[in-house]
Please model this.
Amino acid sequence: MLSKNFKKSLKEIKSLKVQGASEVRKAAIKALALEISGFSSKSVMHFKADLLLAMKELWLSRPTEPEMRTALRVVLHKVQGKEAESVEKLRKELLGELLAFERQRQEAMRKIAIYGARSITKGSTVLTHCHSHTVMEILKEAFRQGRLERVYFTETRPLFQGRITALELSKAGIPATMILDSAAAGFLKKCSLFLTGADAILSDGSLVNKVGTQGISMLAESFGVQHFAACSSHKFDPATVFGFEEVIEQRPESEVWGKKLKKLRIENPAFDVTPAKYVKALITEKGILPPTEFAGLMYEELRLDKHEKEFASLIRLMKK
Ligand code: RUB
Model:
């Protein structure tokens, strides 16, 4: 049985009250830690079953969020195939693991901000799309260092995450201009850089990010404006190496238009896929790397040549 608080957190993640991949991960870890603290399971077996149930709900809450899935995978790895002595010992170990994971992610974010700011040359004008906490950290750092002149940003239909970007830029005192999504082509010409976040990086280095990113990235290339994407290495989706598809979240029609008309269908994918060739580099805590090189590095680091079965069974386990 899941607690009321856990269900509330799930709802906040699904409804986008919690928004952006990094915040989704943070909220998921917090919700799981609280849930684990409250488990009344009498045996290790029951504890593990309760844990799996909670993890599955989080895993399925937003389908295109590998950073959250990485967090859950790391935790699950700790429990699987291990004979825990007692519920209390297991609980303590898992809570410690979640805390350490979150701390490490915050350090990663700091590094990304520093590397990213260095790659913004003095007097730059940046275009961004949607709202990314990672991008915001870079922009604030670059502005603090006197490198950033102005940020152009899209309002980001249908849920207007650009307004979150607006509030944050304004609070930081950064000169900023909001534009319509459809105006990106015209304003790109004024920009020295297109900088986005990422929700997922796939095995071929392609980038999954808020719908609209692909189009702007392709336009940027044709105007000679480089596209950089900032993301933590945990956004790499290892399962895609083995042919598992990165599911693109489909959001409700009502987010686009509340009207129901005969024969009218509305499609509302939350994300799109930008091929690696359009992205100059990924700004990660491991360094600034071309997307395909980053994917290669992750393949080596995760020793994926040895773990195909593990990923296949994990995906089976987390299915609806
Ligand atoms: C947000 C989005 C962001 C990435 C990266 O989509 O596409 O660019 O999630 O964000 P949504 P961050 O609003 O649907 O969550 O840098 O915060 O991880």
